[in-house]
């Protein structure tokens, strides 16, 4: 392609965190290949792609794979400073390609984080300063760049970076403690040496996780730089096939999402046509919409996981049979995600590394409160704020908190009640129970996702009103009623043993 046609053919990639996936949408118009019209953002090569556009051809921009192949074949077990420099430069190039000079936001936070580690050392002051500065900077970014649409902007990878730098500060702090005072998890992730600026930069800008994650620790990154993340010591990891498998699976979900999303979209939920449908249809639509919506996140995480596996970062030791495991950077347990009938099962299979990060650095660090439920609530509140300042995020995680509490109460009730456990164990009814559970599960999973995806108050309240706040009504009622049902159905002796 030459001349004017060559200049018109611009590759504009949309790369985001929890709200989109890295896609390239191209169509043919007037016998010339052109991109769909996009809303430009400050970066010289960033764009926001409308969900209303139906692409004739969809490609996943897998730019991390060439970077991983180069590092795998040309930098394996080279000097560590070369690894750090390579990861820093490739990550910065991705940031500049998408956000232009706004890449300086991430660069500034990385530099300040390095100074905090060096000047404040392994102190609780350094941890608190890191937490306050990084979260405040992210919140300010959300505030000053907020719109009513999903835009491709620097805050998207910055939220990933924020968690990474906070985790680094805590691990560095743990590295200064006596080993006897650390639990096994803290011992594994504690940073005992003093990271250099180049090392912190390489860790922060690693191309395989800079835009959308996954989260990983400095200790794992240091092992990668030293060439230790391999199933064959001294040789390149045998990770090519596992990486291709995750990429292929990601592409499968991409195709599925692309085909189905032509008929189901966020905009439909707030359309007059949707509001005019019968009540049962509105509920069923939310069920299908929620399931399909999550596929774009599944796609993104599977593809980026493949990059991490390819370079070796996904190595997670060996299983009981001596076979290498490549799930260190897994953000999805696909089979569990597709088959579990429980909300807790979906949570355990979805966005695994971010959930593990919150559990490790927020939930477990709040142990001093002496209240597990309060620690869980504060951890979910942190997640909501970390995602953004829109009300929809708070409503989403509040709903998740409520559903999980009720589900656990219901599971315990069925287990402890002789009558309910007898009914639940009837083999011939198992398929019926499963279908019913899955229907309830995905109906209210979609219900919880409505404010997360629409995020603006006037949008999600419109959808919730159209189905009369069904999820809130049912689960708040169950929260109040289940204790009384338990008193009636669970024998007092078993209830006392359970309490003990």
Radius of gyration: 24 Å
What percent of the residues sit in helical stretches (DSSP H or I)? 55-70%
* Structural class by helix and strand composition: mainly alpha
User: Which whole number gives the mean pLDDT?
Assistant: 87
How are strands sequenced across the largest beta sheet?
Answer: 2-1-5
Q: What overall form do the CA principal axes indicate?
A: globular
Which stretches of 5+ consecutive residues score pLDDT under 50? 1-61
The oligomeric state is single chain
Q: Supply the number of helical segments.
A: 23
Which range does the strand content fall in?
under 5%
User: Strand count, sense and closure of the main sheet?
Assistant: 3 strands, antiparallel
Terminal CA distance reads: 76 Å
- The SSE string, one letter per element, is HEEEEEHHHHHHHHHHHHHHHHHHHHHH
* Count of DSSP strands: 5
List the helices and strands and how they pair.
Elements: H1 3-8, E1 23-29, E2 32-35, E3 39-40, E4 47-48, E5 57-60, H2 64-74, H3 80-99, H4 104-120, H5 124-145, H6 155-174, H7 184-189, H8 197-205, H9 218-225, H10 240-260, H11 266-269, H12 272-275, H13 279-311, H14 334-339, H15 343-349, H16 352-363, H17 372-387, H18 391-416, H19 418-424, H20 430-454, H21 457-466, H22 470-489, H23 492-499
Antiparallel strand pairs: 1-2, 1-5, 3-4
Helix pairs in contact: 2-13, 3-8, 4-5, 4-6, 4-8, 5-6, 10-13, 13-20, 16-17, 17-18, 18-19, 18-20, 18-22, 20-21
Membrane topology: Multi-pass membrane protein
Pfam families: MBOAT
Pathway: Lipid metabolism; phospholipid metabolism; Phospholipid metabolism
């Amino acid at each position: 392609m030459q001349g004017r046609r060559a200049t018109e053919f611009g590759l504009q990639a949309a790369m985001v965190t929890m709200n989109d996936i890295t896609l390239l949408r191209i169509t043919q118009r007037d016998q010339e290949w052109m991109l769909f019209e996009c809303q430009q953002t400050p970066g010289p090569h960033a764009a926001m792609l409308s969900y209303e556009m139906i692409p004739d051809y969809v490609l996943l921009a897998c730019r991390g794979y060439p970077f991983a192949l180069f590092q795998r074949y040309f930098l394996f077990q080279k000097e560590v400073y070369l690894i750090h420099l390579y990861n820093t430069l490739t990550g910065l190039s991705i940031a500049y390609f998408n956000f232009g000079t706004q890449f300086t936001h991430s660069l500034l936070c990385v530099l300040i984080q390095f100074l905090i580690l060096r000047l404040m050392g392994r102190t609780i002051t350094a941890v608190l300063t890191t937490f306050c500065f990084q979260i405040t900077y992210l919140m300010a970014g959300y505030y000053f760049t907020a719109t009513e649409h999903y835009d491709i902007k620097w805050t998207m990878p910055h939220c990933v970076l924020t968690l990474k730098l906070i985790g680094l500060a805590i691990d560095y702090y743990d590295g200064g403690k006596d080993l006897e005072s650390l639990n096994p998890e803290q011992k594994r992730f504690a940073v005992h040496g003093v990271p250099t600026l180049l090392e912190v930069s390489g860790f922060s800008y690693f191309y395989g996780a800079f835009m959308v994650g996954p989260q990983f620790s400095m200790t794992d990154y240091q092992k990668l730089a030293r060439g230790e993340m391999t199933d064959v010591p001294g040789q390149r990891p045998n990770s090519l096939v596992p990486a291709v498998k995750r990429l292929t699976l990601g592409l499968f979900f991409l195709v599925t999402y692309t085909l189905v999303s032509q008929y189901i979209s966020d905009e439909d939920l707030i359309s007059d046509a949707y509001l005019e449908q019968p009540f049962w249809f509105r509920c069923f639509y939310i069920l299908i919409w929620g399931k399909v919506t999550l596929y774009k996140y599944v796609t993104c995480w599977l593809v980026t996981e493949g990059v991490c596996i390819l370079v070796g970062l996904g190595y997670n030791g060996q299983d009981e049979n001596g076979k290498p495991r490549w799930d260190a950077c897994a953000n999805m347990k696909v089979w569990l995600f597709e088959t579990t009938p429980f909300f807790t099962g979906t949570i355990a299979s979805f966005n695994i590394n971010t959930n593990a990060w919150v559990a490790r650095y927020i939930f477990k660090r709040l142990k001093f409160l002496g209240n597990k439920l309060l620690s869980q609530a504060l951890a979910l509140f942190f997640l909501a704020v970390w995602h953004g300042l829109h009300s929809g995020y708070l409503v989403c995680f509040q709903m998740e908190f409520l559903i999980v509490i009720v589900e656990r109460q219901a599971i315990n009730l069925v287990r402890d009640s002789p009558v309910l456990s007898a009914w639940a164990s009837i083999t011939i009814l198992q398929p019926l129970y499963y279908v019913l559970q899955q229907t309830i599960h995905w109906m209210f999973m979609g219900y919880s996702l409505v404010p997360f995806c629409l995020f603006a108050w006037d949008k999600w309240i419109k959808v919730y009103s159209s189905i009369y706040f069904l999820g809130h009504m049912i689960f708040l009622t169950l929260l109040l009623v289940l204790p009384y049902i338990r008193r009636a159905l669970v024998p007092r002796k078993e209830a006392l043993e359970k309490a003990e």
